[in-house]
Amino acid sequence: MEPRRPVVAGQFYPAQRQACLSEIQQCLAGAGQLEGLPDTIVAGIVPHAGWTFSGDLAAMVFSAVKQVHQRVDTFVIFGAIHGYSDSSGSAAVYSEGSWQTPLGQIAVDADLAFEILRLSVLVESDLKAHRSEHSVEVQVPFIQHLFGGAKILPIMVPPTPLAVQLGSDVADVISSVEKKRIVCIGSTDLTHYGPRYGFSPQGTGVESLRWAKEVNDQQFIDLAVQLIPEKIPLVAGKSHNACGAGAAAATVAVAKKLGKKQGLLLAHTHSSEVMERKFGQLSEESVGYAAIVF
Prior knowledge:
Helix content is 39%, strand content 18%. With 294 residues, the chain is of the alpha/beta class. The chain has one domain (17-293): 3-Layer(aba) Sandwich (Protocatechuate 4,5-dioxygenase, Chain B), CATH 3.40.830. Strands 1, 2, 3, 6, 7, 8, 9, 10 and 11 form a nine-stranded mixed β-sheet that branches. Strands 4-5 form a two-stranded antiparallel sheet. Helix 1 (17-31) packs across helix 2. The longest helix is centred in the C-terminal third of the chain and has 20 residues, at 206-225. The two termini are 35 Å apart.
């Protein structure tokens, strides 16, 4: 079968191989050597904006996994849902085949997909659902670069409380799989603040962006780090602080079911801060980004 082709290469990240590698290396250099990491990492939360804005934070999570585990067999990537809708409310797994990126093809872990589909009634095989979604795609080149031979299992997760049970089901499958290291990645950006996003309860200006980061984003971060997955979709629905609330909730549920007691926040910023640091420009709007490992 034909691989899933990239849809945001050349927009969110470079479309050419060498340019893609160069930007990954720049992002990883920005991550640096991370301190205080747990002895094992079973999951992480990453942003999914263009690499110029959020690539450094995504790189931190994958770099942390690499520091702790030289080899990972499969990354389960829980993605947000930005456009696709399914009346069934089920999560959509890309259950077979491969994905194409500027770095080549990466295989989907069909065996793991089979086990998850067999166990959980909350997920369905749906390759078409992934055609235009970017939240998983932008993570894949980092995996290809750092973890040669690893497979992926993309799962798009609706932002509903059922995401918690899905995460628990996936954790049960992971626990039953022998001789395979599996890490789950949840893809979400945080508060989209400003008139363009239709969310500006604190008005505009520097203070409003500080509120978006230090209050609204922090609600999400606290729930994630404290392993309270059941509240993530509910709070996100009211506070608009996570566009991938289902993906995040599933990831935190996996970490909790696999025995983690607390997450570790590696970094937290927003797009206006990035613009100021990289380009010397300010904005009255922002999107939040966090890097967390469990």
